[in-house]
Design a protein that fits this description.
The complex is a heterodimer. Chain A folds into two domains: 2-132 and 145-262, no CATH class; 285-350, Endo-n-acetylneuraminidase fold (2-Layer Sandwich), CATH 3.30.2460. Chain A is 40% helix and 17% strand. Chain A is built from twelve helices and eight strands. Chain A is globular and about 70 Å long. By secondary structure, chain B is of the alpha+beta class. Chain B has twelve helices and 14 strands. In chain B, helix 4 (237-267) runs parallel beside helix 10 (480-502), helix 6 runs antiparallel to helix 7 and helix 7 runs antiparallel to helix 8 (381-422). The chains are: A alpha+beta, B alpha+beta. Chains A and B meet through helix 7, strand 1, strand 2 and strand 7 of A and strand 1, strand 4, strand 5, strand 7 and strand 14 of B.
Chain lengths: 351, 546
Amino acid sequence: MIRSYLWISLFTVCSFNIYTSKSWSLNEILITGPKVGLAATNYTRNPDLFTRHPVEAKILESVRKGTLKAQEECQHQFKWERWNCPADTAPFDQDFATREAAFVQSINAAGIMHVVTQQCSSGQETFCTCDNSRNGQPGGYNWKWGGCSDNIKFGDELTYKFLKGLTSGKNENAAMQLQNYGAGRQAVARNTKMVCKCHGLSGDCSIRTCWQQVATFREIGQFLKQRYKKAKFVNYFDGQLRQGNDARTRELAIFSKKQLAFLQKSPNYCREDHVLNIKGTKGRQCIRSKNKNAMTTSERKSCRTLCKSCGYKVKKVTVDVSNTCNCKFRWCCKVKCDKCFTRENNYYCVR
Amino acid sequence: MAGVVLENLSWKKLIILSLILLMLLVTFFLIGGLQAPQPNNVNIIIGTKCYAPGRYVSREKWHIPRGNNSCEKLDSLRPDNAKIISKGITDKQIVFAFWIPGPRDGYELKMHPRFQYMMSVLQLDIIYQPQNPVGPNPVMLLDFRLGYRNEGDREGDWKLLAESAEDRKLVCTIAYNEKNETEPGSQYDCELLHAFEISSLHHDYYLLNLRLPPSPEKNIDIGQIDDISLVTIHQNGGFTIIWFSIKTFLFPCVLIVLVWFWRRIQQMCRPPNLLERTLFALGITMSILNLPIEWLTFWLNIPFMLLLNDIRQGAFYAMLLSFWIIFTGEHIMDQTERNRLKLYWKHLTAVIVGCVCLFVFEMCERGMQLKNPFYSIWSSEIGSKLALAFIILAAVAATAYFLFLCVMIYRVFRNISAKKSTLPSMSHMRKKYYMGLIFRFKFLMLLTLFCAALTVIFFIISQLSEGQWKWGDENLKLEYSSAFFTGVYGLWNVYIFGLLSLYAPSHKTASGANADTDSQEEEVQLTNVPSEMSALQSFAAKADQD
């Protein structure tokens, strides 16, 4: 409960900037913006409130789902790292400006965009609009004439406007947030697969229609993890993020929108630190197995990164675990399994 | 009189005509590129997972994704889902419901007869789990029910349009990481499955209910299905209007020139020769293709229109290919007596075999779909082999055709160069006759190559533009795919228009400038040209032997 409260609590601080929007649904937020924040804090207490403002409710629901998805993926990606994306991470906290913060910001933007894009085609009541612009100019097509615009574009625009509304001020932290949000949105937009279908004369390829398929969120998470590893340490001057702090090399400091940026060096995640709210790696579990090939690189390195290089020892605890085995699956729902007992070795970091 | 308009036209007039036709051509491309939207619109709908309670679930009941009569929805189909465990839900009780089209902006979108047709494919999201992987060559049994409803109808009053249980082969691949291992939770990449194709959209809303019923051999080893999306493709309304308008404009244009052409031939005091008859037939097939009967679909429910269009298009292609063969054959200039259809039986057989193959294939696929929209020839083992056999046979026929055509063109060019060397020694009349023949042939050759090259170039451009999705490119001014369709359609119309007007028999005598007294004599001479030509040929052959 606390966890979801913290992830949602962002709305209490959100102040919506004035932005121009094309669709009524976004205008609706613009008008009732502060109310959205208010409503969101009451979310768990009075769900009926939302039926009165279905559009905002749906956007907020998507945002909530997006941040949860992001958190889940973040924890998956950082399972075997010293910083393991703890549940009480405040994703939109502006003082949080480390490399890890950069990842959290980007995956949140990606999560929201992913959920919004998907819910456009969910077949349920939706706030997605039919973009009636043509070549960027408004007043072009309607559904009967030219169909509907791309869902990915809509998701991108909505996420951009929503997150921009959350970013307050014009300082280095706001600049870093916008940079990482942009990188997150790009991760969704870039990781699409084009699927085509031929349907010409007798099914030949003289008529071919293609559409974009958004990647699974796991793939986007993996993509952002790579970006995290290559994240850039930046400085803020002249109202812009720049690599390096030498004014003379300013021209050289080209900074791509795709990259993650951070302002502070990460603290030591090995030791517990109450001020910085770091739990440390003591007591964390790591993985060892005889079958090295069956493990991923981060799994293989886990005991080294979590315990040994932090100055802890690895302790082996042998337990008997009941597992399911010989399962018979159908495509849905029911699983018929046997219960098996296996002896497993678990490893923990101890002093 | 043997000359055609082309030979007797002054350069000035020819250039003016060419420029007019070229401008017309550019107009067609621009109309498609600037006015029309994309030819087709894609609508992706993620299936709503409905729970049909009860032990014996009625197949007749409609499961509706939204609205007052919506079904009981499930968030997830995973075995660890709380609702699935608590209610003991089985795979029999799951229905995937798709309401086409999806809602936007808080409004229900509606389908429209303008959209002409709708075809759809299923896209499966199957998650890899080590205990439950996708087996080798699994077969899915898909129980489809397609219904429709119009705007005024009572909510929930869906009527059945078609239903069928179909087998589909599931082909999935999965990515491996650097350790040759697949991470649990990653998604399979599955081939799209054909869902349905309907060629008349006369209702506002369509509803597809899909079940995957349990069966001893099917729906087994298909992994854990997370979601099923329906991708529907329909023609855009704006494109339809522009397309029909172009046809409506072109139909009278070609028809007028066709009538003029035929009257010109009627004015001759001889029966029309083979080439003229072929050209006339080509004009007729073009006019049939141009005939804008599609407008009727706006008011009438004509499901066979798509099939009819394909047949009309196929007939035109067959005629065009036959025309090229006959035209080339008539210009070979050897000693053989031509002007008979019989001579071309080999070549025409290739065309006919190819077209019949494609026609049979078309009837098996689209013809069957009139009865059962879910039918796909590719889903059954025998069907796909049969379809492949037809396509291979058609390809063989096409290859044979092009070989024939190439050989013929080679012979024409060989004879042309032979003729050219003997030209100076010929009499004035014969020289003029041959030069006219050569010019006619070369002109058509160039024109055809120009049209074919333009078609190929625009086809490639449109395919590339369709295939390359430009992220954030707002400055895209031209709709290449639409421009391709309207432009190429206009191109071949202009081609036929040009042929009919330039290759019609000329009123002017072959040597208009000569004295009038000679004309009678010349006419006699020219009608005898074939025999004269063969005499000349044998003479040339003799000279070669010497």
